[in-house]
Amino acid sequence: MTPPDPPKLIIRSDTGTQQIQLVDQPLWTVGRSQMNSICLSDPCASRHHAKIETVFDRHFCYVDLQSRNGSMINGHPVITPTLLQNGDRITIGSTEILFRRGIVTQAGNDTHQPQKQILTLQGAATQGIIWQELFLSHGISVIWETGETELLHHLRPQNANLPNLLLLDTEVFQQRLLEFCFWCRQQFPRMQIVLTYRETPHLSLDWQKQVAALGISCFLPAFDHHHLSTQTQVIQGRFNAVLQLISSSLNPETFHTTLKTLDQLLNQLSAVDKPAADPNPPSAPDPDEITSFLKMPSSPPPQRRQKHNN
C-alpha cells in the first residue's frame, strides 16, 4: 500500500500554484520578505505576515504576526493561534493556502495504516484533537476529515481498508445525518458508528429515537476542553465505551499520560472551533457516487410492534 502524502500546503496565487511539504523543521514563516520560508508576492501580505509551527510533533498551528491586513481561515479572521485541520483554507489577500494531511499513526508520522482505524468528521478543532490524541495513544490510526465529500472517499465499497469505526459530529451533517447513517448501515453493516454533539437543542427526542433505531448506541456529548483534568473519569468512561466497540482495551496509565499532554497542548494554544471547511479533494470521486450519495434513501421510521388479539 502506498502511504499517504505528508502534511503539506497548497498555495494558489496570481503567479501560479506551488506545494510545500511541512516536514523536517519545526517552523515556517510566511510573508513578502525573501527571508521567509514561504515567500508571497501578494501586495496585501506583510513582510513578516505569519508563521506555522509544529506542536507536539504532529499538530500545526497558524499564528498571524499582527499583520497589517490580517489572515482568514475558512472565511473567519485569525485572532489567536489556531490549530489547523485537514482541508483548512488560509487566505492572505488574494492568495489561498490549503492545508492537507493524510492518515496519522501513533508514531506521529503519516505512514501505513495500522490494523484498526477510525474515520472521524469533526468540525471543531478542539474536539478533533482530543479524540485524535486518545486514539493514537492506543495505537489506533485516525483519519480526520472536515467535509462530507472527503468522507465519502474513504467509504467506497471497493476500498481494501475500510475504517473500523465512524465518529461523526452531528453539527457538521445537520439534517443529512440520518440519511447518511442509514446509507452506511446498508453498505457497511459491520462498521460501528458513534455520534458526538456540541449542542443539544436541535436534537429532538424523535430524532434520537430514529438514531437508536439504526443501531447507533453511542451518542456522546462534546468534551469540555477547558477542564479536561477535572473530568478524568467522565472522559475515560466515554473513551472506553468507544474502544469496546472495536474490541480494544483501555490502558489506564497511557490514558492519564495522554490527558496530561492534552491539557498542556490546549493550555498552550487557543484552538478556535471553526466551521467545517469544504475543500476540493485531491482526486474527485466518480460523479455517479456523489449522485447516489446525495440521493440516499431516507431512514425508515422505527417499526411498531403489531398488537395481536389473544
TrEMBL record:
Residues 28-78 form the FHA domain. InterPro entries: Cell_Proc_Reg/RNA_Proc, FHA_dom, SMAD_FHA_dom_sf. Pfam families: FHA. It comes from the Bacteria. Residues 272-310 are annotated as: Disordered. PANTHER family: NUCLEAR INHIBITOR OF PROTEIN PHOSPHATASE-1 (PTHR23308). This is FHA domain-containing protein.
